[in-house]
Specification:
Strand 16 (692-697) and strand 17 (700-704) form a beta hairpin. This protein has an 8-stranded mixed sheet with strand order 13-12-11-10-9-8-21-22. The protein has a 7-stranded mixed sheet with strand order 14-15-16-17-18-19-20. Helix 11 packs parallel to helix 13 (305-323) and helix 17 (399-429) crosses helix 18. 41% of the residues are buried. The protein is 51% helix and 19% strand.
Length: 812
């Protein structure tokens, strides 16, 4: 399995020369060591197989010119395919189509009324024989009633095809990679649809209807909050999951219990299989019925990645029972991974895939080593205290001692899983819930209670709501225990440690050292092994930042700039958007965590337009991140929004200060000096009183201008001329005012300064047309290199100790 994945990784992130180097090293090793064992040739075979599978898959999903034309020109297209999944929330539906054909209306050469009325299968087949783009799967978004659509129907959709959004900031969620790992390549936004082949998958539709029926049963018996958790844990339905509960579980590292995982499949599948054996059915019948039942349950719950893995391993387990062979969990795990990767090679980019398999590795590989060392330590201690054995005999045989040992073993298992999955958790969520190891000692043993209670509620609720309500009692009690435990742990200091997003090289070094440390422990060198694990964790969490870093975030139509000075202090200039909803939740806070920021020292709001402060307001309202100081422009026209933000910050314990021309924030060699506005100034247009700041560090200068225009820009220019004795000030980097509007960054202003680089923050396809061509022409005439967030995502600037400047766009 490992070498097959290595082949896929080389194909995805490397090139043919890397493959040749890896195979060459293996060949040299075989030759030098004279290793003619077949196992070493199998390694080569698996690497080559993984490489070939990924390369063939890449060829299959490569975007052709016709699809590119459809997307970039927003051409109305006809998309046909077979329904393989249906998800409904409110009046919106997400339908996954497989074996998809995409054609434009002209390609189809048909009349506008083709989507109305019934069509024979022969007519439909004739239509789709024309050339078009064939893709494996597509996600179709439909509004309105879709009750007539069934699994297995072939539907024809008219709409527009697009691309899934990629992350444009550090910490952002990459929707394209997420769906690509499930073989879903494009989203389609439907205007209308028609069923062109009404044949359907009988079993899949029964599973879908059964899940819907059981969900209604749960919601009839429980309140919405508890029902949403039961539905998530029993049916895999997280669409209506209580958001507060999800965030609470996620923060404390127990959100995994909300997913249908190997725990659920093992409990449900093995319980049913053993019941069949107990009532006298033979192995073959029990295995067949049990496997069919668990596959049906998987269809009911959406066949998530963990479910697929667990179902394959369950089937292998019962087959081993039938043929009288010993079940080897690592072999079953490897086979299941190879099957899943052969069908969906890009699962190697899916964090859920890695967590599911690494948890198994933690239980079956790491845990036995640590547990064996624990047993050796206990045996050695008991041998040394043999003289006191009679005195301690009562204690040793006591129930309490057995409970303590059981808890210690569970803790060792929890530590084993944490150690092996920690890099992936950090890479995915950028933080570690420190006490989750202890919390899982309570959570995991009680999970079966919720599962069986929820199952009883769902089934009994079909007959009697009163019985279902009674069955829910024990499950709801355990959920309350979960909630209270999470809230109590959240109150303890350092319950969550923000680690930042580790680089891939850090993760590779961690696992390399971790494996060596594990071998040392296994070979009775526990002291060296323990030191090795500590070194591995240090390597994983180590991060290096150049002396000063500035990041202009891609916030859509808005502004958001983060500065980390050479001493590690964090400054944020603005943080708002008019196009991105919940900017703090989906952009700002994820960036802070991925960047390794635990608190912001200074937030400076240049002026009170929503596209400059909405995200900061959201943080203060939800108290989702710690801000130490809020700095506002010292102006006379304090709007209601201005006063509301100040009041909100004061309520959260944030120190509020006011800044105007001549004031400065200084930290050693680093300084931010205010060049505008004048103290107490009043202007009807708030853009004219934007805070303008000059950054100085090691002879490197940057100018941040907010949305400054007209008289504000003129005042800033005069202030710069005064400061530099009427000589043209040299700025290495200019943050272009007002998102590149033609009404700012005028020719007169640019004549008074020399700039090397210009950074523009604006949203893709914004209604203002920013940046305007006139502004771009003026910047080019001024000799500036132009960087734009709408084209390149976040813009990252690194300033070295000796004044060198590196500018990089996140998506290029």
């Amino acid at each position: 399995m490992v070498f097959g994945i290595l082949g896929e990784v080389i194909a995805l992130y490397g090139n043919i020369w890397l493959l040749i180097i890896v195979l060459g090293l293996i060949a040299i090793g075989i030759r030098y060591r004279r290793l003619y064992d077949m196992r070493y040739y199998l390694i080569v075979l698996f690497i080559m197989s993984g490489y070939i599978v990924m390369m063939l898959y890449n060829l299959n999903i490569r975007e052709d010119k016709m699809m590119q034309y459809y997307i970039e020109n927003e051409v109305s297209v006809d998309v046909s395919g077979t329904v393989s999944s249906i998800t409904v929330k409110d009046d919106k539906a997400q339908i996954i189509l497989k074996d998809v054909t995409v054609k434009s209306e002209n390609d189809m050469d048909r009349q506008d009324d083709n989507l109305s009325g019934d069509h024979s299968k022969a007519e439909t087949d004739k239509k789709v024989q024309n050339n078009g783009c064939n893709i494996k799967k597509a996600m179709v978004y439909i509004k309105g009633d879709i009750s007539s659509i069934r699994y297995g129907n072939k539907i024809l959709v008219r709409g527009t095809v697009s691309r899934f959004k990629e992350d444009t900031n550090l910490g952002g969620f990459n929707l394209m990679r997420y769906y690509r790992s499930q073989n879903i390549i494009y989203p389609v936004y439907a205007d209308e649809y028609n069923i062109i082949d009404k044949s359907y998958y009988y079993i899949s539709n029964i599973a879908y209807k059964t899940a819907a029926l059981l969900k209604k049963s749960i919601y009839r018996a429980c309140d919405v909050k508890d029902a949403s958790v039961f539905s998530a844990m029993i049916l895999g339905d997280k669409k209506n999951l209580d958001e507060e509960i999800y965030e609470l579980y996620k923060k404390n590292g127990i959100a995994h219990i909300l997913a249908i995982s190997g725990l659920h499949i093992s409990l449900v599948g093995m319980s049913f299989y053993r019941l069949l054996r107990h009532i006298g059915l033979n192995y073959a019948i029990s295995a067949t019925v049990g496997s069919s039942f668990i596959i049906f349950y998987g269809l009911m719950t959406g066949m998530g990645i963990s479910s697929q893995r667990a179902i394959i391993m369950f089937v292998i387990c019962v087959i081993a029972d039938v043929i009288g062979r010993t079940y080897d969990i690592l072999s079953a795990m490897s086979l299941s991974a190879l099957i899943m990767l052969a069908y969906s090679p890009y699962l190697i980019e899916n964090a859920g895939f890695w967590l599911s398999y690494l948890a198994i590795v933690g239980i079956t590989v790491v845990n036995p080593v640590l547990l064996d060392e624990y047993k050796k330590t206990i045996a050695k201690r008991d041998k040394e205290s043999y003289k006191n054995i009679e005195k301690d005999k009562a204690i040793q045989n006591s129930f309490i001692k057995s409970m303590i040992e059981s808890m210690i073993k569970s803790m060792i298992c929890s530590i084993s899983i944490t150690l092996i999955t920690m890099p992936v958790i950090m890479y995915m969520s950028y933080e570690i819930p420190l006490y989750s190891i202890f919390l899982n000692l309570l959570i995991i043993p009680l999970a079966p209670v919720i599962i069986f209670s929820g199952a009883a509620v769902a089934i009994s609720g079909l007959l009697s709501v009163k019985v279902a309500t009674f069955c829910s009692g024990i499950g709801i009690f355990v959920l309350k225990v979960y909630e209270i435990s999470c809230k109590l742990l959240s109150m303890i200091p350092y319950s969550t440690i923000i680690t930042g997003k580790p680089m891939m090289i850090n993760i590779m070094i961690y696992y390399a050292i971790f494996i060596v440390a594990l071998i040392l422990i296994k070979t009775s060198h526990k002291e060296y092994g323990a030191v090795g694990m500590i070194i591995a964790i240090i390597c994983l969490t180590f991060s290096y930042h150049s002396s000063l870093e500035v990041t202009m975030l891609d916030v859509g139509q808005g502004d958001g700039i983060v500065i980390r000075d050479y001493r590690g202090s964090i400054y944020m200039i603005d943080g708002g958007s008019t196009t991105e909803k919940q900017l703090a939740k989906y952009t700002l806070v994820p960036f802070y965590k991925a960047y390794g920021i635990s608190n912001i020292d200074y937030v400076i709001i240049t002026h009170m337009d929503a596209d400059h402060y909405s995200g900061i307001k959201e943080i203060l309202e939800e108290d989702s991140f710690k801000i130490n100081n809020l700095i506002m422009g010292d102006v006379a026209n304090k709007s209601d929004a201005y006063n509301e933000l100040v009041e909100l910050a004061t309520k959260r314990g944030v120190k509020v200060s006011y800044i105007s021309d001549g004031m400065m924030i200084k930290n050693g060699k680093f300084s931010l000096e205010c060049l505008s506005p004048e103290s107490g100034i009043y202007k009807d247009n708030t853009n004219e009183v934007s805070v303008a700041l000059e950054l100085n560090y090691n002879d490197v200068k940057m100018l941040f201008t907010g949305d400054i225009v007209d008289s504000g820009e003129e005042y800033m220019k005069r202030r710069i001329m005064q400061k530099y004795a009427n000589e043209a000030a040299e700025y290495d980097i200019l943050k272009v005012a007002h998102h590149g509007s033609k009404y700012s960054t005028t020719e007169e202003f640019l004549e008074g300064i020399d700039i090397d680089n210009a950074l523009i923050s604006c949203g893709e396809g914004n209604r203002y047309g920013h940046p305007h061509d006139e502004t771009l022409e003026r910047l080019i005439s001024a000799g500036a290199n132009i960087y734009n967030t709408k084209d390149g995502g976040a813009i990252m600037v690194k300033l070295g100790m000796t004044g060198e400047i590196k500018i990089k766009e996140y998506v290029r």
